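User: Hi! I have a protein structure encoded as tokens and I'd like to know what sequence might fold into it. I'm fairly new to this, so please keep things simple.
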């Protein structure tokens, strides 16, 4: 059951991602009516002589951003340029993630993470939690208090990491069951538990198999990393010689499904793309992280053309920013490097509606349309001609000074 809110009407400039195409409609002076359940009841142009005042002058309203890939226990090491993926994990990440055994530290970072999401206009995130159950529970509680929407997993590792970060398979799965019982589906499904093996190298076959069974038993979303870095790919091939390719490691353990979300997918082979598409799995495209760790350039246009669902991910802490507008700008640059441009309108769609689809929430969020939850943000923009949609989209995504996010609503309720 949802706590009811006072119905309200928002008036302002609206950017409305379409449901059927990767395009965005621009309404210069629109009204969004939100009912007591926090659901959008109506959207349309403000009539002549409309008495409703502009809700936040100088802003544009759009669906809240969806960050499809972000690591909670890496918040405080974002931006450390210590090397490429496997080196960076050893030198920078594991020591920081070990600190999350301390509940007080974890609580501080969880609050900080929520603040960063709200400041960036991110209303929904798919989060890699800590490998410590208590730290992951603390994050769920922080998300609950702030009113944000998220899917969160306990990051599963039982090998190839420092011992204090590893949790043996049976104990890890018991801890997951407890988190599922407490949080999965909480507040009318605002929070979800997500099965989150870190990646193939950090999990024994026993843990991967248990994770697959867990996801199947509770019909849970799944997230993990796939084909990020050539060294990683070679190590996976050596570790799992029976698998046809990297994705097959996950498929063999019940982890390649229509509820699966694979981070990166930079170097996939043709058979892997075929298998991913056939399974109906989705991709979290993390271009800023891919640049920063020198991982490579994901073929975004090809992926969209194949009909694979794609969202954008900050991948903090390998990504350097929580701003999905900056991530969209990185995705633009990456698409140019591949020689297959993906423009700002399509990128804004991916950062909102596309992310929602990738998380299996495309029928609930990501659109300003009747029947969708009122997850909206108001972003201040400065343009010479606000009626010029191209200039407005460029200002939103490519302006170097990130303009402040002025209001963040989840189900019509302000996230704080
Ligand atoms: Zn990641």
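Assistant: Happy to help. Inverse folding works backwards from shape to sequence: for each of the 416 positions I chose a residue that suits the local structure. Here it is:
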């Amino acid at each position: 059951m949802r706590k009811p809110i006072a119905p309200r009407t928002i008036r302002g400039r609206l950017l409305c991602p379409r449901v059927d195409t990767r395009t965005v409609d621009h309404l210069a002076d629109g009204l969004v009516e939100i009912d007591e359940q926090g659901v959008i009841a109506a959207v349309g142009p403000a009539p002549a002589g409309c008495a409703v005042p502009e809700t936040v002058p100088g802003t544009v309203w759009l669906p809240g951003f969806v960050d499809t890939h972000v690591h909670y226990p890496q918040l405080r090491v974002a931006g450390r340029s210590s090397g490429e993926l496997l080196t960076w994990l050893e030198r920078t990440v594991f020591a920081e993630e070990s600190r999350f055994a301390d509940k007080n530290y974890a609580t501080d970072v969880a609050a900080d993470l929520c603040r960063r999401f709200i400041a960036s206009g991110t209303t929904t995130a798919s989060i890699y939690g800590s490998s410590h159950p208590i730290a992951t529970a603390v994050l769920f509680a922080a998300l609950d208090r702030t009113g944000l929407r998220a899917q969160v997993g306990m990051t599963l590792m039982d090998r190839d990491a420092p011992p204090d970060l590893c949790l043996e398979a049976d104990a890890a799965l018991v801890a997951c069951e407890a988190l599922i019982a407490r949080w999965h589906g909480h507040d009318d499904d605002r929070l979800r538990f997500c099965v989150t093996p870190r990646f193939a190298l950090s999990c024994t076959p026993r843990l991967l198999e248990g994770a697959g069974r867990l996801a199947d038993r509770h019909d849970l979303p799944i997230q993990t990393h796939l084909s990020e870095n050539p060294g990683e790919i070679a190590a996976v091939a050596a570790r799992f010689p029976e698998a046809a390719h990297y994705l097959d490691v996950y498929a063999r353990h019940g982890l390649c499904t229509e509820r699966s979300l694979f981070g990166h997918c930079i170097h996939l082979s043709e058979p892997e793309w075929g298998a991913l598409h056939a399974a109906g799995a989705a991709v979290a495209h993390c271009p800023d992280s891919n640049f920063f760790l020198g991982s490579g350039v994901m073929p975004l246009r090809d992926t969209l053309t194949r009909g694979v669902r794609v969202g954008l991910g900050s991948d903090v802490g390998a990504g350097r920013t929580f701003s999905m507008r900056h991530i969209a700008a990185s995705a633009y640059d990456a698409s140019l490097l591949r020689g297959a441009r993906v423009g700002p309108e399509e990128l804004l769609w991916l950062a909102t509606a596309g992310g929602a689809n990738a998380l299996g929430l495309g029928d609930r969020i990501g659109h300003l349309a009747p029947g969708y939850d009122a997850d909206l943000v108001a972003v201040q923009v400065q343009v010479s001609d606000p009626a010029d949609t191209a200039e407005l989209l460029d200002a939103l995504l490519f302006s170097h000074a990130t303009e402040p996010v002025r209001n963040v609503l989840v189900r019509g309720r302000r996230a704080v």
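A useful reference point when you look it over: DSSP finds 14 helices and 17 strands in the chain. Feel free to ask if any position seems puzzling.
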